[in-house]
Amino acid sequence: MQDKEIKHQPGCEDELNTGLLSVAEAQARIMDGVSALTAAETLPLRETLGRVLAENIISPINVPSHTNSAMDGYAIRAADLPAEGVREFLVPGTSWAGRPYLGPSGPGEAIQIMTGGMMPNGMDTVIMQEQVERDGDMVRIGTGHKPGQNVRAAGEDITEGQAVLAPGKHLTAADTGLLASLGLAEVSVYRRLKVAFFSTGDELRAVGEPLGPGEIHDSNRYTLYGMLKKLDVEIIDIGVVKDQRELIEQAFKKAAGCADVIITSGGVSVGEADFVKEILEKLGSMSFWKIAMKPGRPVTFGQLDDAVFFGLPGNPVSVMVTFFQFVRPALLKMSGETDAASVYLVRARTTTALRKRPGRFEFQRGVLEQSVPGEFTVHSVGAQGSGILRSMSEANCFIMLEPEQSGIEAGQEVLVQPFQNLI
Ligand code: AMP
Ligand code: MG
Asked: Are residues 197 and 330 in the same domain?
């Protein structure tokens, strides 16, 4: 006798979501599972911009190297400041920035000085030129000045021997400027991470090719390429690979031979033609996780020879969400960054109602706006399907809805993760 009812298999829309891994747990496991590069290279200063510092920087000099004036004005001895009334000083010369006054200057004399000009011997105080009266080779200075004012001491910014930057620092414009101020022409940075990726699917066609019945254009290699570009890694695009065991295996071997990280999209669901898991189990080691999140539930994380492997879902939005939440922080850590550029979370009032069922963490696509300086509102971009890439294109943030949260009414506050300029 046959069963009268159809037994349901576990599916993506289960509300119970038993056995699912939390987003935080998946993130923690991934971060624990990757380690930083150690290989480094020495590069001319400008080429280190955006790279990760691999050495300790100890200042070889004082910055500034000499005590100098912070203003255009007149350098004098504090002891010569008048207690009352006005005092006249003889001006025997001028100290320009880079052209110090090296002549004699005695008590009761003032040296005209420019911003950055070296303080003449024995002088310790600068009076702004707007606060004096100049008359030929004399200058008149009144009361109301403080001893030592308007002077920048040698080593005030950095002293010789001081630790300035540590390995793991992502080098910004300020950092390369700082390194330049120390006179360093080249520094050691970690080598770039090599990241290979490919798309899987028989239905995928390259851009520029016409679509046959049931076919779609491969967009994941474009979103992945774009997001990797922002990270200053070496990108190796292996292309589209058909859902055939041998071809996928070949692609994996090729990627493992040339990259530190392999990213694939598609082919990790339970469809019969999904070989990614199977091949990885054979060639390396892997964990397959169903994560309590939407979009982007199945994610594979593993190792293939020396390469770390991320198997992302095929749906275009899922790829972007899982890359941003799991792969990006891991790549930053692997690149050697210890100050991994934080992604800030912002509180914002939603101006649209947000639909949600309790159970999974949702990364809904939204538009964050600053209503008045320092105050933010957010609205949903609308349709939230994991295949609707337009929703990512219109959005500038993820609206982060915790698993236990249900629908949110307009006017309530939500937590938002802005991604503008990061992807
Ligand atoms: P899969 O994980 O391979 O079952 O794919 C899930 C969904 O994402 C299917 O609708 C695929 O057609 C789609 N998809 C997979 N890979 C890509 C890709 N590279 N570009 C666009 N859509 C894709
Ligand atoms: Mg597929």
From this structure: yes
The rounded distance, in Å, linking the Cα atoms of 391 and 145 is 62
Give the residues across from 88 on adjacent strands: 140
Asked whether residue 218 falls in the same domain as residue 270, the answer is yes
pLDDT tens per residue, range 217-258 = 999 999 999 999 999 899 999 999 998 889 999 999 999 999
Ligand 1 contacts CB of residue 386 (under 6 A): no
Q: What is the pLDDT of residues 72-107, one digit of tens each?
A: 999 999 999 999 999 999 999 999 999 999 999 899
For the Cβ of 47 lying below 6 angstroms from any atom of ligand 1, the answer is: no
Q: Return the best residue to mutate from 209, 220, 318 for the ligand 1 pocket (most ligand atoms within 8 A of CB).
A: 220
Q: Mark which of 270, 301, 334 sits at the end of a domain.
A: 334
| Ligand number with the minimum distance to the CA of 201 | 2
Q: How far apart are CA 318 and CA 388, in angstroms?
A: 10
Give yes or no for residue 155 CB within 6 A of ligand 1.
Answer: no
Q: Give the residue from 190, 213, 237 where a domain finishes.
A: 190
CATH number, residue 237: 3.40.980.10
Task: Give the domain range for residue 124.
Answer: 68-152
Cα separation, 326 vs 269, whole angstroms: 18
